[in-house]
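REQUEST FORM: STRUCTURE PREDICTION
Request ID: SP-0412
Submitted by: Lab K.M.
Chain count: 1
Length (residues): 311
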Amino acid sequence: MSFKAFKTALACTLSAAMLLGAAACGTTDEATSGSGSSSSSSTTGYDVSGIKKDASIAAMLPDSVTKDGKLTVGMELTYAPAEFLKEDGKTPVGYDVDLSNALGKVFGLDTQIISASFDSIVPSVGSKYDLGITSLTITKERMDAVNFVSYYKAGATWVVKKGNPQKVDTSDLCGKKIAVQTGTVEEEDANKAAKQCKADGKKTIEVLSSKLQTDAATNVVTGKADVFYADSPVAGYAISQTDGQLQALGKDEGSVKQGIAIAKNDDQTTKAVQKAVQKLMDDGTYMKILKHWGVQSGALDKAEINPTDLS
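STATUS: Completed
RESULT:
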């Protein structure tokens, strides 16, 4: 994606006056089919069209998933390179999109990506969507609401304007404005830091929470925020697309597992997803997808149901 295209995506979040439709910003419950086929775009996904149905794994799915011939997946489509929209503002791409399409192929189902706000996805798994695949960090709190199948690991990165003009120091963020996406682990961390500054009698942190991840990057580029905090693949991609305007601050923090969310009471789908992800890991498709997007450093070799080791 070019810097111009990235700015166009960011502009979706700024104002209705920009004459860009809300649907193009990836915030509404809209469905798109995932064919897994290639195109000539610079944001072409990995071609999964050659993946064959695995009848034994597909048979594990309940009728509630298979009866309409579709695998519906909830995603928040402003989280490049995991899930975002191509320059046309309509077509989902990213490694989570490719993985979703690959899973659909294994199950013999047509994958449909449902665009939604990040914080609405977990509560809607099992009702609006069969799965939630949207860079979801696995936490004990989220596991109270849904089952998870682990498939990736990522750290978190602080991002500032080039040269760090606001002199942000991650060891002392008191008095700074931090941009985060609503419902993320990074938002939780920023709010904890804000409470600690208040308890210590220091200048308060202003946490700017936005429904869209692109808003966090926009807020730093425009100077509304001093720093934004996001998963490392997302932060790295944002930096690469802003033509030198942004830079990472310090090293990535932590490394936590991300997972595919499935309804808590749906053991059949949970086990089927685990088998399907492990198959893709074992046959090399999973790694090819990650390498296609340059994010193979976060690869796992084992898909686990509700892992206890979250780091």
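NOTES: Residues 1-28, 33-41 have pLDDT under 50 and may be disordered.
Reviewed by: T.R.
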